[in-house]
Amino acid sequence: MKRILFIFFSICCAITMMAQSVTLNISEKPIRDVLQPFEQASGYHFFYNSTSLVGLDHIVSVAFDQTPLEVALNTLFQGTTIVYTIMDNNVIALSNKEKEQSVVGKTIDGVVVDATNFPIIGATVRVKNTDNGTITDFDGNFSLSNVKPGQYLQISYIGYKTYELRVAATTTSYNVTLQEDAEQLDEVVVVGYGAQKKVNLTGAVSVVTAEEVAGRPTQNMATALQGADPSLNITMNAGSPNSDFKIDIRGVASINSGVKPLILVDGVEMDLKRVNNNDVESISVLKDASASAIYGAKAAAGVILVTTKKGAEGKAPTVTLDAKAGWKTQTTSTDFITDGFMSAYINDLFMHHHANYNMTTYNEADYAELWMRYGQTEEDPERPWAVAQSDGRYKYYANCNWYDHYYKKNRPMQDYNISVTGGNEKVNYYVSGRYYNEDGMIAINTDKWQNFSTRAKVNINIRPWLRYGVNFSFFNSKYTYPGTESVREVFRVGSLHALPFVPANNPDGTPVYMNYFVYNGAGTVGDGMNALLQYGGHKNAEKNNEMVIQNRLDIDLAKNLTLTADYSFKWRMKEISNRSVKVPYTDNVSGDLILMDSWRSVDYYKQTLARYNTHNYNIYLTWNPTWGQHHLTMMAGFNGENYRYHDLVVDRLDLLTEDLSNFNFATGELNELSEKVQEAVTNGVFGRINYDYAGKYLFEMSVRADGSSRFSKGHRWGVFPAGSMGWRMSEESFWEPISDVWSNSKLRFSAGQLGNQLVGYYDAYQTISVDNIFEQKITLDGATALQYATESAPNSGDLTWEKMTTYDIGVDWGFFRNRLNFTGDFYIRNTTDMLVAGKGLPSIYGASAPKINAADMQTIGWEIALSWRDNKKLGGHDFEYEVSAGLGDYQSTITKFDNPTKVIEAGYYEGMRLGEIWGFKTGGLFASDEAAAAYEVDQSLVYGDINLVTVDGKTGARAGDLIYLDLDGDGAIDNGAATADDYGDRVVIGNSLPRYSYNFRLGFDYFGFDFSMFWQGVGRRDWYPTNEATTFWGPYSRPYQGLIPEGFMDLVWSEHNPDAYFPRYRAYEALGSQNSLGQPNDRYLQNIGYLRFKNLTVGYTLPCWKKVFSEFRIYFSGENLWYTSPLKKYCNTIDPESAAALTQAITYGFAKSFTFGLTATF
Amino acid sequence: MMKQFAKCILLMVITALTLASCEPRSTVVLPTFSNITISPQLDSYAIGDTITCSIERLTTGSEELFEDDNQYWFYASWWFGNHELTADFQTFAQNEAGKYVATSSPIVLTEPGEVKLYFFGKLQYPNWEFYKVEIPITITVQDTIK
Question: What CATH fold (topology level) applies to the domain A2-101?
Answer without folding.
Answer: Phage tail protein beta-alpha-beta fold (3.55.50)
